[in-house]
Amino acid sequence: MRAFAFPFLITAVHAAEPAFVLRPGDAKITSPAVTEASGLAASPSADGFLWMINDSGGTPEIHLAQTDGTSRGAVTVTDAVNKDWEDLAAFTMDGSHCLLIADTGDNGSAREACNLYIVREPKLPAEGETLSGKAPILWQITFTYEDSPRDCESVAVDAENAKVILVSKRTEPPVVYELPLKPAKNAIARKIGVTETKSPGIVSVPFANQPTGLDISADHHMAAIVTYLGVFLFRREEKESWADAFAKKPEVLAPHKLTQAEAVAFSRDGKTIFAVSEKANSPVMRYGAGD
Description:
The protein is mainly beta. It has a single domain, classed as 6 Propeller (Neuraminidase), CATH 2.120.10. It is built from 1 helix and 21 strands. The strands form 4 sheets. Strands 6-7-8-10-14-13-12-11 form an 8-stranded mixed β-sheet. Strands 2-3-4-5-9 form a 5-stranded mixed β-sheet, with no helix packed on it. A 4-stranded antiparallel β-sheet has the order 1-21-20-19, with no helix packed on it.
């Protein structure tokens, strides 16, 4: 979604023994090219790196930064169009490290179809070097929803089950959909359930409780959803479906205090959750696993 400025009106949010706590820090995105970070993913191949994308109308690039926000360059995705890029997911499957770019934004819920672009993770630059070049599309998923067009800014990958998970925005409650993670045209996203992303004790703010980003941990046991006001953690038990996991009441983490949070990502080891805003020089907020 394009920039939507509003003041934060927050009362205290309490969660019983949260698994992740907000850690202090002054990390900020330094790249002048990343002005509307709408998607975030930790590198699936090395610690210390974050991939990012810009929102609608931006160049079809994936940007690389260190976890302290230091820019490390960008690559152009060949033959891709940034109609409304809204999320980014990293995953490893069959020994290959990949990134999924979700061109799924649809503020008016009117798009005939949306696209997911899958690329191999570019080779990370050596110390002192900056990334550049191009990344070809490995495969593309063009899909529609089984019910009606949806605005969706929250997309993640469950590589273990070769599924793409999507959570709608602008619906009450948010709807959870699922797609096969394979090359496809005319694929259909099927509804598997609904979820909850309400921050308790919040004065009414437009879009406050609507999902704007999603990630699934590399071990497939956790999912995190970010909204403009909060981060919500869902735990998935062994052999439990994502429909069941998202149907449970989430753990509500401490408010991130970002101006317009649009992206969330687990670290490669699942011990840190990162969140950033769709603003230039966004802080890189991080939640660490509790001691």
